[in-house]
């Protein structure tokens, strides 16, 4: 035989390594550039956020000066001499402030009528700068002066590294305060810098990169305008300081790139040398493989003629032989199967079960495994796998396998099992399944069985056909199926009847509430054939163990209750329990009558006076709703208000009360010269209606009532529910000029931090605390605390439910501002108000 020619050295690994190094270089460069820009953007974002934070603090600090100016100016002499002023809220350090009113000798430049004018005064002796805030007040122009340290202490908390700074500018570019301090720049204008010429005109908040006009150093800057004042906060940080960490990563990346490139080159050289050795071995093996090829083709022809997938594994579970049926089952070609591990070709989810089968297989027997397996298309098939050992040369062991697909047979079995327990039309459990669920549930806690019949479902089938009737049933089934997981079982028990099993007892919703919700859910129309149909559901309910002790008895009693609901006209829900049924009947009756009360004019607003404790004068009226039903008689608000809340009727009723109260207050002023304030309660549903502000503004405009003559009362639960939304809505109400109060204060959970943010003028002490005054020291302590809290937040305190002179005397001693209650007057209709205000006020009131 001729000597085989050595194969040439394979240079592909070297070429691949070179391409990989180039790709690595490009990728690393891209990552470094991206990291550079990310570092810059992240620092700009931090500086912008810091500027916004300092802008907020500066706003409140300036607002404090503004408030101090307003308070102290009233007591300042008109000759222009200074008056010391206290900064509201105090300060960590004593910062002197001086207020003076500007007389005829004031500077000639006029002050703006609305916005304040802020400036800086630099003493000639180099002393500390002074911040001035001037504003035109109702008493005339006035100015407050405070040491710049008042603002300096705010900015000194920032740590922006070497060269970093926080600066307060006027909007005209004048530098007012800088941290760290830079006396030579204070008072100078930077109006011609890019910040004031380019960035600030485009946006009130932003960030940019520029060269410092002070020292020529490149820096990153963030800025934010101060809300409500002509001020601007600028935060800066050296660019070199920002990029210090990035440069460190740059050197690490370069060193890592060099090390990885050298490693790849060495690996490529070794792979090229090994490839040459393997090529020589392959050449020697090819001759022996050709001898085996003829025998293998003969065997494969026989195997390919079989329709059952067959494959043979070696000791390492590699596929060494297979037939055409196996390729069809796996959806692969020969190259993707030959020599591959079985776990790479067959569904890996069954690898553990197949491994146990192979471990149990022996040479003298065939072992079987039934399991689900995914074929090449991804479909799950049920199959029986047979495995047996084959002897081969030496000690090697091979395993031959065959696969029999039994998917269709299994599907038929599962379908039969499914139909035994489920309704084929809706997919819900059937009566058989329901009985088993009841039997299991009756071993545990209390349960409720609800039977529902669709009285008019057959009408849909009669009108539009059987398919339309089935479609209506499927829609109802979908609604009921949505009750999961709260329902233990939802089943279809007859053609137009369903059953729902629900847990009951402590910790679960009341049975009557569940019944109302179910009836409301199923009373919604279904849409079939382009038309809407009301299926008129009737509901029968029985409970375990109150009504029955067994599943059959429970079903029987629920069925009887359903038939009662069907026979009782106008009463579509019926309980086997008479007490629960009567309770539900009362609620349904109140709801039914309440839906028509507004249109029938049965609701009447009454007005209870609020009285100033110090002067005994009436300060306003709270509007209280009364309902006198021709069917039910007088109905207490405690009975109908919760039902109005639950059903949503409170929204139109509350809007009517608001408009009526505004119109009445305007009529008193117009016809009797009575200028008073009316207070209207807002429920939580009203408070979160989307057009609340528009409704309030419309009521005021239609009545011609000044906004300050209207007060809206909200409860603590509303105020603390969604603080951000509440704060925005309350701010919108105050922007209208309407006053706000928190009702029943002290009975719920409130956060004093949030209370401070709300623009509320009054706190109303709940009658529960007022009732025990003089008998309970704790109530007096609570009232005293509420009064102190409210006065500390500049709010007036109103006490509710004052009925005795002793209570009034204690409230006066505790510093309460106003009261309302039977001691002065009961709630009255609108016609009695002029007479009340015309009579002398009792001395105690």
Distance separating the two termini:
131 Å
Report mean pLDDT, rounded to a whole number: 83
Widest sheet: strand order? 23-24-26-27-28-29-30-31
Instruction: Report the uncertain regions.
Output: 89-93, 839-845
Shape: flat
Strand segment count? 31
Q: What percent strand?
A: 15-25%
Please identify the structural class as seen in this structure: alpha+beta
Number of helices: 26
Secondary structure: helix percent: 40-55%
Taking all Cα atoms into account, the compactness measure Rg is 43 Å
Biggest β-sheet strands, sense, barrel = 8 strands, mixed, barrel
Key descriptive features of the protein:
single chain; 845 residues; alpha+beta; 8-stranded mixed beta barrel; 5-stranded antiparallel β-sheet; 26 helices; 31 strands; 44% helix; flat; disordered C terminus
């Amino acid at each position: 035989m001729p000597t085989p020619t050595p194969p040439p050295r394979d240079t592909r690994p070297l070429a691949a390594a070179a391409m990989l190094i180039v790709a690595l270089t490009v990728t690393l460069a891209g990552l470094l550039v991206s990291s550079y820009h990310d570092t810059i953007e992240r620092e700009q974002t931090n500086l912008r956020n810091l500027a916004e934070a300092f802008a907020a603090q500066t706003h409140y600090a300036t607002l404090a000066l503004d408030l101090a100016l307003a308070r102290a100016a009233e007591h300042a002499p008109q000759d222009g001499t200074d008056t010391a002023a206290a900064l509201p809220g105090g300060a960590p350090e004593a910062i002197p402030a001086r207020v003076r009113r500007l007389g005829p000798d004031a500077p000639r430049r006029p002050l703006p009528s609305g916005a304040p004018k802020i400036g800086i005064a630099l003493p000639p002796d180099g002393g500390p700068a002074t911040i001035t805030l001037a504003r035109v007040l109702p008493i005339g122009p006035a100015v407050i002066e405070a040491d710049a340290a008042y603002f300096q202490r705010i900015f000194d908390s920032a740590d922006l590294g070497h060269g970093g700074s926080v600066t307060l500018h006027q909007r005209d570019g004048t530098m007012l305060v800088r941290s760290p301090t830079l006396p030579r720049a204070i008072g100078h204008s930077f109006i011609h810098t890019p910040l004031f010429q380019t960035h600030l005109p485009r946006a009130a908040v932003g960030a940019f990169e520029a060269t410092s006009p002070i020292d020529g150093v490149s820096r990153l800057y963030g800025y934010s305008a101060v809300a409500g004042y002509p001020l601007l906060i600028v935060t800066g940080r050296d660019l070199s300081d920002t990029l210090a960490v990035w440069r460190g990563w740059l050197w690490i990346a370069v060193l890592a790139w060099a090390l990885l490139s050298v490693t790849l080159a060495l690996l490529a050289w070794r792979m090229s040398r090994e490839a040459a050795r393997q090529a020589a071995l392959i050449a020697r093996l090819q001759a022996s493989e050709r001898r085996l090829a003829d025998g293998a083709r003969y065997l494969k022809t026989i195997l390919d003629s079989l329709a059952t997938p067959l494959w043979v594994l070696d000791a390492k579970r590699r596929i060494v032989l297979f037939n055409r049926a196996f390729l069809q089952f796996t959806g692969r070609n020969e190259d993707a199967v030959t020599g591959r591990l079985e776990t790479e070709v067959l569904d890996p989810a069954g690898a553990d079960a197949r491994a146990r089968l192979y471990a149990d297989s022996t040479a003298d027997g065939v072992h079987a495994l039934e399991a689900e397996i995914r074929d090449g298309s991804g479909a799950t098939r049920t199959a029986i796998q047979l495995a047996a050992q084959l002897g081969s040369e030496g000690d090697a062991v091979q395993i031959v396998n065959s696969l029999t697909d039994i998917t269709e047979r299994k599907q038929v079995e599962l379908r039969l099992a499914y139909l035994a327990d489920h309704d084929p039309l809706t997919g819900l459990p059937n009566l058989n399944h329901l009985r088993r669920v009841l039997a299991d549930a009756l071993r545990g806690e209390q349960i409720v069985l609800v039977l529902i019949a669709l009285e008019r479902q057959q009408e849909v089938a009669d009108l539009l056909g059987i398919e339309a009737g089935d479609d209506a049933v499927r829609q109802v089934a979908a609604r009921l199926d949505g009750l999961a997981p709260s329902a233990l079982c939802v089943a279809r028990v007859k053609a137009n009847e369903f059953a729902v099993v629900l847990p009951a007892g402590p910790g679960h919703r009341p049975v009557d509430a569940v019944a109302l919700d179910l009836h409301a859910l199923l009373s919604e129309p279904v849409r079939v054939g382009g038309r809407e149909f009301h299926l008129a559901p009737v509901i029968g309910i029985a409970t375990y163990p109150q009504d029955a002790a067994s599943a059959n008895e429970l079903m029987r009693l629920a069925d009887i209750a359903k038939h009662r609901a069907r026979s009782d006209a106008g009463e579509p829900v019926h309980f086997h329990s008479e007490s629960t049924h009567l309770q539900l009947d009362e609620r349904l009756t109140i709801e039914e009558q309440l839906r028509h009360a507004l249109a029938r004019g049965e609701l009447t607003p009454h007005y209870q006076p609020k009285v100033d404790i110090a002067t005994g004068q009436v300060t306003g009226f709270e509007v209280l709703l009364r309902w006198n039903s021709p069917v039910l008689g007088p109905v207490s608000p405690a009975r109908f208000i919760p039902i109005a809340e639950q059903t949503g009727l409170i929204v139109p009723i509350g809007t009517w009360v608001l408009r009526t109260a505004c119109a009445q207050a305007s009529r008193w002023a117009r016809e009797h010269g009575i200028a008073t304030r009316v207070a209207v309660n807002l429920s939580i549903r009203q408070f979160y209606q989307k057009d609340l502000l528009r409704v309030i503004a419309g009521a005021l405009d239609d009545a011609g009532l000044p906004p300050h003559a209207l007060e809206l009362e909200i409860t603590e639960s509303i105020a603390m529910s969604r603080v951000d939304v509440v704060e925005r809505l309350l701010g919108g109400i105050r922007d209208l000029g309407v006053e706000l109060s928190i009702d029943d204060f002290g009975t719920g959970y409130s956060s004093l931090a949030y209370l401070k943010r709300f623009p509320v003028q009054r706190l109303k002490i709940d009658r529960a605390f007022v009732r025990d005054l003089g008998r309970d020291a704790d109530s007096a302590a609570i009232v005293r605390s509420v009064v102190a809290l409210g006065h500390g937040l500049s709010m007036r305190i109103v006490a509710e439910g004052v009925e005795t002179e002793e209570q009034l005397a204690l409230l006066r001693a505790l510093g309460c501002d106003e009261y309302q209650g039977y001691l002065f007057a009961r709630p009255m209709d609108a016609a009695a108000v002029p007479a009340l205000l015309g009579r002398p006020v009792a001395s105690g009131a």
